[in-house]
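To: structure desk
From: M.T.
Subject: fold request, one chain
Message: Could you run this one when you get a chance? Sequence is below, nothing fancy, just the single chain.
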Amino acid sequence: MSWFTNLLKDRYTTVSSGVGPTQPRLDLGNIAKDIGVAGALYGIINPNDSSGLANFFGTGGRQQPVGYTGGIPNYTATRELAPNAFAQTYTTPTGELAPRRPGAAGRRYFTDTAFTQSTTTPFMGITAEQIAAQNQAAQEERDLFETLLGSAATQRETQAAEQAAAEQAAAQQLAAQQLAAQQLAAQQLAAQQLAAQQAAAAAAAAAAAAQQATTGTTGTATTGTTGTQPTTRQRFTEILDTQIDASDGLDMGEQQLIADSITEGAFGIDEIAQRYGAQPIDVVEGLLRGGFQTPEEIVGLYDTAGFDEPMLVATLLEQGKTTPEEVAAYYKDHPVYGGITPEQVIQEFRKRGGTRFARGGNINGYYLGGPTDGMADQIPATINNIEPARLSDGEFVIPADVVSHLGNGNSDAGAQNLYSMMERVRRDRTGNPKQGKQIDPNKYLA
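Reply: Done. Structure tokens follow.
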């Protein structure tokens, strides 16, 4: 090991003290001292070589300027002679004109000095015109940038609004389609239910007729001391054969006999209909409108499951064999349906799929004068804007309230009084309580 190596070792290393083997370590204090001395010596020897020290300490390059490095602005100082600078008088604060002397307080001869920057001499290398041009260019760039941003934002808002409108329209269209499908399904179901009800009513009528026919033909006679007694069917058969003439219509007495034959079980509704060339629904109409039986009693004549009063009423309304007003009158004293109105009858009827009662011209009591046949029934009308009707010229329509008044508040009693009045007039006029037969006048005028 050379002497230089030993010198460095002795200068820059030291031996640790303490328990255990000794270990050499760097003496950082001596290293720092020697580096500082070396730098000082270099600066004394080369005072103008700042780059050498900078490179030595790792800063590198030339020393950067510090502080303000711009040019000196060029200003022009200007001032002018003050107005009335040499006037001999002046106006005092109180408004008086007083003499003026040189050096008086507040007297001025020149205006304030104004410093104006040159617009041609560059300031920090840039003229005022260049600064203005740069400012204008910057403002134009900013305006363009804001315009682009605004256009993009407006476009995004427009696209969002169009998308929302399209989604809303699609949702509305889907809802409308679903509603239409539901309505169509409800109408189809109501039509099917009504058809099933009518079929059940027809089947019930047929079954009841067959049952009553069997009961009537198999009944046995009762033998007593006075001889053989006829059965109920035999008794009413003789009554109907001898006391009823249906060729010119049925009066109230004849209708009563037919109703009694049904009520007492001698004949069924279908049998009566077949006997007089009518339909079963026509017989039911007569029983109800004549006040001989209630809807509940008529349903009791049929022994068919599922056939009930609502089904019977709906069938009668659908075929025009009764009116909502009559239905309301049938149930006016009913413990459950008492007080039902014609409008409620129509609503319930339509819920079951009924399609009648389109509104049209109303009749509410008047005389029909005109040239048509008195029995032609060629004038269309509606009763209470609900029940369709066909009238003839020469007829007079009596309002419902008058009919009720004729029965002291009971429309059925009032109608019965009107029927009686009609029979009396016809009997006194023609000798027959029934309406005359319809004829073809052209046969006699030809």
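Reply (cont.): DSSP finds 15 helices and eleven strands in the chain. Let me know if you need anything else for the meeting.
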